[in-house]
Design goal:
alpha+beta, 2-methylcitrate dehydratase PrpD, 60s Ribosomal Protein L30, Chain: A, four-stranded mixed beta sheet, two-stranded antiparallel sheet, 21 helices, globular
């Protein structure tokens, strides 16, 4: 990978975009979608707050000290970077948050905690916060897309790894950095970005920390750069830059993607929304199973075996190791298990948060069927543009029943409407807050450009 000249360096182009973007330069339809993505993330944060890992993380952050930064749905405050860490976990914890398909990154989960946290501290307008959020989204999704799904192949989780770069520039913007300092911020965060996929082996909680760590790291890097700290300038294309360091030998990153169409083409419009609370790679297969339930209503003992066709690059994430996937030990295992999700869809005609509780995970009918669910690589997939899935059921009376989802629901080519996002927000938020409070949050977020961040913060931390 040849080093670019300083003028052509990716970090310089991205810094220039981040610092010069005016909110009025962003088309109104993109701004509207951005506000709805923020609303989706906040609804998820409310829903996540009741889960054990959220309480454990809050206790740990409080142990590190109090502060002045708002935590979504809590009355108490934390130190800025600790609040970002926790808010990222709250948005991402249920694995129900948005995904940029080509970048394979949950971008809002880092962009929102970073933009909101710094905007609250700097007492900015809602419009300034929205602009910073857009910067983080546009940068992170492009930087992730360059790898062409290569980060997963070597065990890195792009949400944490790549989100840090977008957050470094969102923070640079809110802190008023120069272009040179914003370049240094990207170089500094290169030594902080992280995210291991080892959680897939045993359902550990670590993935949930990745986006908040990206937000915290990006903020730290930008603050260091603000005070004159020097970072490497070739953060992306350098000999030990992001792509040389985090991709396997033989990978072919397309560096042009990082800056292609910057400021003219908006990656926010390519962000997919999740209709079910599971890894995005499972959604098409889940919908295919639900369609077969609705058409045939098969009982578990009527099914001899099930074959699920999935894109090759997702096999290691949602199909292997087979023993773990066929008997998920916890909710996180279940969210990354094609056998469990397909079995649930075939027998119950759904996959919701209720299917992740202890009783559902112990359902003997579902667990019996998961043992009969196997996978094949889908040779006709359009992955990563679409996360395809096909379910083929072989019945004991000799029938072959099949349903294919060629375009996953919620993707850019089959998008969830803004009204659908609002509906999803209420479904999640009303699990823990009143309708009156949910209405206040909706109005504040959807009217963000006319709202101060201080007002939004008051509403978000308002106790029940």
């Amino acid at each position: 990978m040849n080093a670019h000249s300083e003028d052509a360096r990716i970090s310089a182009t991205l810094a220039d975009f981040a610092l010069k973007l005016r909110i009025d330069d962003v088309p109104s339809v993109v701004r509207e979608r951005a506000r709805h993505l923020i609303l989706d993330g906040i609804g998820l944060a409310f829903a996540t707050s009741t889960f054990d890992y959220a309480g454990v993380t809050l206790a740990a952050m409080r142990d590190l000290g109090e502060g002045k930064a708002t935590v979504f749905g809590r009355s108490g405050k934390l130190a800025l970077r600790d609040a970002m860490l926790l808010n990222g976990l709250l948005v991402h914890g249920l694995d129900f948050d948005d995904t940029h398909s080509r970048g394979v990154i949950h971008s809002t989960a880092s962009a929102l905690p970073c933009a909101f946290g710094l905007a609250e501290r700097e007492q900015t307008s809602g419009a300034d916060m929205l602009a910073a959020y857009v910067v983080a989204m546009e940068v992170s999704t492009r930087v992730g897309s360059v790898a062409q799904s290569g980060f997963h192949k070597v065990g890195f989780h792009p949400t944490g790894l790549v989100g840090a770069f977008g957050c470094s520039l969102a923070a640079a913007r809110l802190l008023g950095l120069s272009q040179g300092a914003a370049m240094h911020a990207q170089g500094i965060v290169l030594s902080m970005c992280a995210g291991s996929l080892e959680f897939l082996e045993d359902g550990a909680w670590t993935k949930r920390l990745h986006p908040g760590w990206a937000a915290s790291s990006g903020t730290t890097a930008a603050t260091l750069a603000k005070h004159g700290y020097i970072g490497p300038e070739a953060a992306y294309e350098g000999r030990y830059g992001l792509y040389s360091l985090y991709l396997a030998n033989g990978a072919t990153p397309d560096l042009s993607i990082a800056t292609a169409g910057l400021g003219d083409t908006w990656e926010i419009e390519q962000v997919a929304l999740k209709p079910i609370p599971a890894c995005h790679f499972t959604h098409a297969a889940s919908d295919a199973a639900i369609a077969l339930f609705r058409e045939h209503g098969l009982a578990a003992d009527a099914i001899e075996k099930v074959v699920v066709r999935v894109p090759g690059p997702v096999v290691d994430v949602v199909c292997e190791p087979v023993a773990n996937k066929k008997h998920p030990a916890n909710s996180y295992d279940a969210q990354f298990s094609i056998p469990y999700i397909v079995a649930t869809g075939l027998l119950k005609g759904r996959f919701t948060l209720d299917d992740l509780d202890a009783a559902a995970l112990a359902d003997p009918a579902v667990l019996s069927l998961t043992k009969r669910v196997d996978y094949e690589v889908d040779t006709e997939t359009t992955f990563p543009r679409h996360y395809t899935g096909e379910v083929i059921v072989h019945t004991r009376d000799g029938r072959r029943l099949a349903h294919r989802e060629a375009i996953n629901r919620g993707s850019a080519d089959r998008p969830m409407t803004n009204d659908g996002i609002v509906e999803k927000f209420y479904e999640n938020a009303l699990r823990v807050v009143s309708r009156e409070r949910a209405d206040q949050v909706r109005d504040a977020v959807l009217g963000l450009e006319q709202t101060s961040v201080a007002t939004l913060a008051d509403i978000l931390r308002q106790p029940d």
